[in-house]
Amino acid sequence: MQEELRMVTEPVVVQAIINGERVDTEKRYTRENPANPEEIVGYGPVNTREDAVRAIDAAAAAFPAWAQTPLRERIAHMRRAIARFREAIPELVPLLSREHGKPVYDAQGEMFVSLAWMDYACDIAEEALAEKVEQHENGKTIITRDPMGVVAAITPWNYPLALSTIKIAPALIAGNTMVLKPSPFAPLAVSKAVEWMAGEFPAGVLNMVHGDADVGVELTTNPKVAKIAFTGGTKTATHIMKSASDTIKNMTLELGGNDAALVLSDFDVNDERAMRRLVISNFLTTGQICMIAKRVYVHRSIYDAFVEKYIEAANKWIRVGDAFHPDVTIGPVNNLPQVRHVERLIEDARSRGAKVIPLGRILDENVFAKGYFMQPTVVLGAGYDDPIVVEEQFGPTVPVLPYDDEEQGIQLVNNSIYGLTSSVWGEEEHALRVARRIEAGTTMINTAAVQGLDIRYPFGGFKQSGIGREYGVEGLLGYTELHVINVPKVGELPNIPE
Q1: What is the C-alpha to C-alpha distance for residues 243 and 260, in angstroms, rounded to an integer?
Q2: Residue 20 burial (CB count, 10 A)
Q3: By its UniProt entry, which InterPro entries does this protein fall under (predicted)?
Q4: Which of 5, 70, 261, 443 suits 28 as a labelling partner, its CA being 20 to 30 A distant?
């Protein structure tokens, strides 16, 4: 994506979208630039619970006609919405970088993933959603994939466009309507994109509200909502599940991860490209990705050599600075509470005797001092049960720990409440054998995180990393209900006494 960027320096104001109309609110919240918190990037609306009810009602009213719209027409609407999204990329990329903090190349990557998935969902829809008819000795059975109804989608700040479009495209193509609630920590680019996309659908099909916890409560408890699609923290998901239990809503939950990288004894520590991929898998987007490798276990026989080469590779790749600096690879942390969380884990590790080693270089000390920046670190000597190891850091730090044999390594990887993604590094056949024993929704070989993501295949987690799958055919079918229609042969029913 080499489009010339269109930088807007004036604060951006976004609104809610309810029944095809922009809705202003008296109260607004501000979104600062995490690289320079004194700079206001824009303002978002603080919607009320009543606004959420209106949006849900609009989606419910629009559902019957949209569900009955022929699939090819729904796909055509989506392709026009994708075209609007694509046209807006030169404006969306710098806006996302300013409000989120991620470097321009990273924001462009998010646009690429968003478009690739939406295009793919359109491409596979006719085949995936086609009804199946089976003739058999008892007559005929028809199996259809029917839309569910109103979808409430709640999305996080780390990949706001990718994690919204991952829900919008399959839900709407399948015939559902939607109310989307973005995160207040990165609301602007996604709101602009949804505003432009919503105009390509009938009023009420795609709605968007912002707001506090009471808005989220309405989205998860309202009886007109049939499905909840949530990406975020496991703790929040437990509240959502409780809220949704009274009406037994369908849910797709993509939650936290404490993803492990297992480095086998036959990994080549002198493979500079592989080591660079591992570093990137730890620190891309400043470590703020659910599927980032957050703990690294290295066979003790190569541990010392690995650490030396890892630090060398990290120091070459990591350059911390403003999102628009031409040499930057890592930007600021998105928000101050997240900085405090990561700092707490690092200080706790240090207090327990671990060694904390800074990585990379800071491009501009003055810029660094102003924003929510942290210098990336590697933590050596932590205990297997220390908080820096067992908790999800979601920031620019990673513990590297030794293990003694393969059985112990596998046990350490699996010893977590999470199981989102994982990676195994070493000779390919050996790594594949080990990968089959890892408890995770995705295991990658000699790569990790976004570098190994393929939107054609399902993505989701084991254990407390979530329920259901996104991406792939499964990500589309997850927004449908199976409907079985039986047509028995007349007179061929079992004998039933009169």
Answers
A1: 31
A2: 16
A3: Ald_DH/histidinol_DH (IPR016161), Ald_DH_C (IPR016163), Ald_DH_CS_GLU (IPR029510), Ald_DH_N (IPR016162), Aldehyde_DH_dom (IPR015590)
A4: 5
Do residues 423 and 293 lie in contact, with contact meaning Cβ atoms separated by under 8 Å?
Answer: yes
The continuous run of DSSP H or E covering 469 comes out as none
Q: Do β-strands 260-263 and 295-299 pair in parallel, antiparallel, or remain unpaired?
A: parallel
The β-bridge relationship of strands 421-425 and 418-419 is: unpaired
* Whole-number Cα distances in Å, 43 to 8, 16, 32, 99, 101: 14, 12, 9, 11, 16
- Cα separation, 448 vs 105, in Å, equals 18
Q: Write down the catalytic residue from 91, 99, 110, 254.
A: 254
| Distance separating alpha carbons of residues 444 and 422, to the nearest angstrom | 6
DSSP-assigned states of every residue in 49-94: HHHHHHHHHHHHHHHHHHHHS-HHHHHHHHHHHHHHHHHTHHHHHH
Structure-block tokens of residue 254: 């993509």
Whose tokens are 């095809």? That residue is 20
**Could you tell me the mean pLDDT of each successive run of 10 residues in the chain, 498 residues long?**
72 97 95 97 97 98 98 98 97 97 98 98 98 94 98 98 98 98 97 97 98 95 98 95 96 96 98 98 98 98 98 98 97 98 98 98 98 98 98 97 98 98 98 98 97 97 97 98 93 64
Phi and psi angles of residue 142, each rounded to the nearest 5 degrees, phi first? -115, 130
What does DSSP say about strands 462-463 and 418-419: parallel, antiparallel, or unpaired?
Answer: antiparallel
Q: Is 392 a catalytic residue?
A: no
CB 179, CB 209: distance < 8 Å: yes
CA-CA distance, 126 to 197, in Å (whole number)? Answer: 21
| Two tokens, residue 452 | 């190994």
Give the rounded distance of the alpha carbon of 466 from its chain centre: 12
Residue 145 pairs with which residues in a beta bridge?
482
Q: Which amino acid is at 289?
A: I
- Residue 4 has a pLDDT of 76
**Host H or E run for residue 260:** strand 260-263
Q: Transcribe 348-415 into DSSP letters.
A: HHHHTT-EEEE-SEES-HHHHHHTT----EEEES--TTSHHHHS---SSEEEEEEESSHHHHHHHHH-
Give burial (CB, 10 Å; 0-12/13-18/19+) of 73.
exposed
Integer Cα distance of 203 and 226 in angstroms:
19
Asked whether 17 and 25 are in contact (CB, 8 A), the reply is no
* Interatomic CA distance for residues 417 and 235, integer angstroms: 12
* Alpha carbons 478 and 460: distance in angstroms, whole number: 12
Q: What is the pLDDT of residue 490?
A: 75
Q: How far apart are CA 4 and CA 91, in angstroms?
A: 9
Backbone angles phi, psi at 30, to 5 degrees: -100, 150
